[in-house]
Amino acid sequence: MTPPILAAENLSMAFGRFLALKNVTVSFDRNTLAAIIGPNGAGKSTFFNAISGAFAPSSGRVIYEGRDITGSPQHAFARMGIAKSFQITNVFPQLTTHENVRVACQMRRARFDILTPRESLGDLSDKADRLLGTVGLAGARKRPAADLAHGQQRGLEIALALACDPKLLLLDEPTAGMSPEETVGMMNLIVRLAAERTVILVEHKMKLVMGICQRVIVLHHGELLADGSPEEVRANTEVRRVYLGQNV
């Protein structure tokens, strides 16, 4: 059997006396689209931060491609092929969309070489254009990022994450603050991205999760409540009691 691309083993996270995660064990297969859901305070963000390297868990391990990466610095995650997009949009507002992505591509090649004349970076410029096309921003390549609509800025942030050619893409509430039309566009983009890599997302919009994901992990009070297909999760009595029954 092919080993999972990512696994959390007995992951726990304590903040003082508060235990935000309690021995969560779950693994993610390659080339799948999975979602982490749960009520407010379920531990979703804590789990996302732990598996993305934002902070080290209090106990347990994070395994990526068979390698223990627990406690590795965040920049090492990107170099291993793990990229992430956070709930709060994080782009360079005064740069154009193309410049944003080109700089991200350039940092992938040389972390501190951001002053090289752009004329010598033709291949990176072409890559930036391809990524802008992937997220539907080819027509906005010359626009400052600050002038983009919210949904477009979220797409730009995903383009930045894709600059490191990730095998694993982690998305924290990718449709937060979006209009229904923007949400549909982001949903379609996520499905396309998942055709070429593993995608794990944290999301509150249940119809989106159940409509596009192959796998759903449910957390409740920091513990793993359910893990399965959307159909299996919908049919889980305990899940319906604590979460889905009031929202789907």
Characterize the structure shown:
36% of the residues lie in helices and 24% in strands. The protein has 9 helices and 10 strands. It is globular and about 50 Å long. The strands form 2 sheets. Strands 6-7-8-3-9-10 form a 6-stranded mixed beta sheet, sandwiched between helices. It has a 4-stranded antiparallel beta sheet with strand order 2-1-4-5, covered by helices on one side. The mean pLDDT is 89. The protein has 248 residues and is an alpha/beta fold. Helix 4 (122-134) crosses helix 5 (150-162). It has helices spanning 44-52, 74-80, 97-109, 122-134, 150-162, 180-194, 206-212, 230-235, 237-242, and strands at residues 6-15, 18-28, 33-37, 59-64, 67-68, 82-85, 168-172, 198-202, 215-220, 223-228. A hairpin with a 2-residue loop joins strand 1 (6-15) and strand 2 (18-28).
Write a brief structural summary.
The chain is 36% helix and 24% strand. The protein has helices spanning 44-52, 74-80, 97-109, 122-134, 150-162, 180-194, 206-212, 230-235, 237-242, and strands at residues 6-15, 18-28, 33-37, 59-64, 67-68, 82-85, 168-172, 198-202, 215-220, 223-228. A hairpin with a 2-residue loop joins strand 1 and strand 2.
